[in-house]
Design brief:
Blueprint (H helix, E strand, L loop, with lengths): L18 H14 L3 E8 L2 E8 L3 E2 L4 E2 L25 E5 L1 H4 L21 H14 L12 H9 L18 H10 L4 H8 L2 E5 L39 H5 L6 H6 L2 H10 L8 H19 L16 H14 L6 E5 L10 H13 L3 E5 L3 H5 L4 E5 L8 E6 L1 H5 L4 H7 L18 E7 L7 E6 L14 H16 L12 E3 L23 H4 L2 H10 L2 H6 L23 E4 L7 E4 L10 H4 L2 E4 L2 E4 H5 L3 H7 L4 H12 L8
Parallel strand pairs: 7-8
Antiparallel strand pairs: 1-2, 3-4, 5-6, 9-10, 11-12, 11-13, 14-15, 16-17
Helix pairs in contact: 9-10, 10-11, 18-23, 22-23
Length: 650
């Protein structure tokens, strides 16, 4: 064991010793003791000792802390990232919401889903045998069992002893059952079984903070009123009580990350350092306050700093990028914005307009692609391109002020002036007998015990101001709750009480803004399934039969038909190290993706002929005309035309 050797530096009577000597003795002791010092005093009531340290070290607990670096507070750095979850904040583990999909069932009725198969029904039998002696009710719904009864089912007997050999003599619990399966995960069927009950769960070490516990101990400022109403974060392996934690001055990094940006801005506005602090620190604080102000100015004050980028809408990403541009204080710069109002409530459009006007006032030029009338009328000059989409567009129809555009006879001008408008169709009635999907007691993020009733067989629109909880309700609660009901793997749903009426639905599909397909080769033709039918048609061409070509020969993802130079992508990817990567048209196939001999096969139909590359170069409208009468291709392309994408090339 480690021992400490105390070396006496000086002895004196405190009351009769000059202060200079005391200070000199303390300084020498700290220097010789590598920053550590113990002062012993002989008092009337006995001897006392005080311990001091001039380093990042607790002299009483003998706990040393590392020197803080910027990377110590980054979950992207090995120095700061939690060692359990590697900085992701989540780990893949057994989700007992999937293990027990229906809490209304009793244990005897099969609440534990994995044990209802022929392979593991003995686990169900053993649980029923040991449960009465442990006082666990087998005929009570899982949701009504006590916490102790649930712990017994999942964790096993409290006096568990031994390993696998003790399974026949004591109840081992569901967790040990899954641990045993993990040890046999080298078998394919076991891995398949485990995948059904795994999902992402909060990291048990950092509780989602993504940082090492040491990083969460540092505090900034002293005012804790900003987190009123928000639970304080407490690291998992720090044995402080909540009352002790609340007495700590200031906010930890994770406390700040969980607050809405508006509250974070208030926190930094109340933090004031003394004039003795480094001037660079004051400049840093000014920079932080400026960026927080910009984020709030563009209507993002409801977001928290720890919001994952994959959960942001396209409009929120645009506005964050706009804030980055504002923070750089650029002048004489051309900004190109692609529909920055996407996802923004009409109430908040003026915020984005004010930001764009501010950029313009600073001497910049903004070119905005936009359909929102509020942004269009705020422009100094407007260009209207038309008259139609795709091949029917490409002409400048108007160039002037928004007021002049409203007086013109262009399609945009007629709608902007109100001379043309779209009448909504008459909605189907919703009555008391209409079947419904009920979601009760939702308490995720800023949703406060919300009950939602969605009529089935109807077009239901969910609206509200930006940040009111729409995405949280649908994407974070309803969608994973439905997947969980259907027994499909998913992330843990937000907190809610009950989901009723889900058995009336056969499936659920989430249509979001994620890219189509899983590879860079994906295109509209392959995504909607039209390319499968097209390849089969090319495989039936006379030249294909003569050469023995199959449908797979006309695939640019696999097979021998694709260009060997670019692998079927049509371009070469050149890495430029410190510059942006460059994509060059493939010199072997000239961007056509296929070998020359494959391009010799042409499909003749409706008096026209086209190679596989020619077909991919067609628009949806052109392909619909070319493949007229061929049902499989027509049916696959029809949805693209129905939603106004007839101008998109296959």
């Amino acid at each position: 064991p480690r021992k400490t050797l105390h070396v006496v530096q000086d002895r004196f009577r405190y009351g009769s010793t000059e202060p200079e000597r005391i200070m000199e003795a303390l300084e020498i002791a700290l220097n010789q003791g590598n920053g550590r010092l113990t002062v012993y005093a002989q008092l009337d009531e006995g001897e006392r000792a005080w311990q001091f340290s001039s380093q990042l070290h607790c002299a009483h607990c003998d706990i040393s802390y590392g020197t803080p670096l910027p990377s110590s507070f980054s979950f992207n750095s090995p120095l700061g990232a939690c060692e359990m979850c590697r900085g992701f904040g989540r780990v893949i583990g057994i989700d007992y919401g999937l293990v027990i999909p229906d809490p209304r069932r009793t244990l005897r009725e099969g609440a534990m889903k994995p044990w209802q198969t022929a392979s593991y029904k003995e686990c169900q039998a053993e649980m029923e045998r040991y449960a009465p002696a442990a006082g666990v009710r087998l005929d009570t719904p899982w949701s009504e069992l006590s916490e102790a009864e649930r712990d017994w089912v999942i964790g096993g007997a409290s006096d568990w002893k031994g390993g696998r050999s003790a399974w026949k003599h004591q109840w081992y619990g569901a967790q040990r059952f899954f641990d045993w399966l993990e040890s046999r995960a080298y078998k394919m069927h076991v891995r398949v079984l485990l995948s059904k009950y795994r999902s992402y769960t909060p990291c048990p070490t950092c509780l989602g903070a993504r940082l090492k516990p040491e990083a969460t101990l540092w505090r900034l400022g002293r005012d804790t009123s900003a987190i009123e109403g928000y639970p304080r974060f407490m690291p998992a392996d720090v044995s402080w009580t909540r009352a002790q934690l609340d007495t700590l001055p200031g906010l930890g990094l994770h406390d700040l990350m969980r607050l809405p940006l508006e509250r974070v801005r208030d926190v930094f506005d109340t933090i004031h350092f003394s004039q003795a602090m480094d001037e660079a620190l004051h400049q840093l604080m000014d920079e932080v306050r400026t960026r927080l102000k910009f984020l709030c100015d563009v209507g993002l004050g409801y977001l928290s700093l720890d919001r994952q980028s994959r959960t942001l809408s396209g409009g929120e990403v645009q506005r964050i990028n706009l804030t980055t541009a504002l923070g750089t204080s650029l002048v004489n710069t051309l900004f190109v914005l692609d529909e920055p109002s996407i996802g923004l409530h009409p109430r908040d459009i003026h915020r984005i307009v004010e930001v764009m006007h501010r950029l313009r006032t600073h001497g910049n030029t903004l070119v905005v692609v936009e359909h929102d009338p509020q942004v269009m009328v705020a422009a100094d000059r407007i260009l209207d391109i038309g008259p139609g989409p795709g091949e029917r567009g490409g002409q400048i129809m108007f160039d002037g002020t928004p007021a002049a555009l409203a007086r013109t006879d262009t399609l945009t001008g007629r709608y902007l002036s109100g001379r043309m408008h779209i009448d909504a169709p008459r909605p189907l009635p919703v009555t008391d007998s209409t079947p419904r999907l009920l979601l009760e007691g939702v308490r995720a993020n800023n949703l406060r015990n919300v009950d939602v009733s969605i009529p089935l067989g109807r077009l239901v629109c969910l609206t509200g101001v930006s940040g009111s909880g729409k995405s949280t309700l649908i994407q974070d609660v309803l969608y994973p709750a439905m997947l969980k009901h259907m027994g499909r793997p998913t992330e843990a749903a937000g907190e809610y009480d009950a989901l009723l009426g889900a058995e009336q639905l056969a499936d659920i599909v989430l249509v979001d803004q994620s890219p189509i397909g899983k590879t860079a080769r994906s295109n509209p033709a392959s995504y909607v399934g039209a390319f499968d039918a097209i390849r089969k048609l090319f495989a039936q061409a006379p030249l294909s039969r003569e050469r023995g070509y199959m449908p797979g020969t006309f695939s640019f993802n696999t097979g021998d038909g694709r260009c060997p130079g670019c692998g079927g992508t049509g371009f070469e990817h050149v890495e430029m190290q410190f510059l942006s990567d460059v994509y060059l048209r493939c010199p072997d196939c000239n961007g056509k993706r296929f070998r020359p001999e494959i391009l010799e096969v042409e499909l003749e139909h409706m008096g026209r002929s086209a190679s596989i590359s020619d077909v991919l170069d067609m628009t949806v409208h052109e392909a619909t005309e070319f493949f007229k009468g061929l049902r499989d291709v027509q049916w696959a392309l029809a949805p693209l035309a129905d939603v106004g994408l007839e101008y998109v090339r296959l």
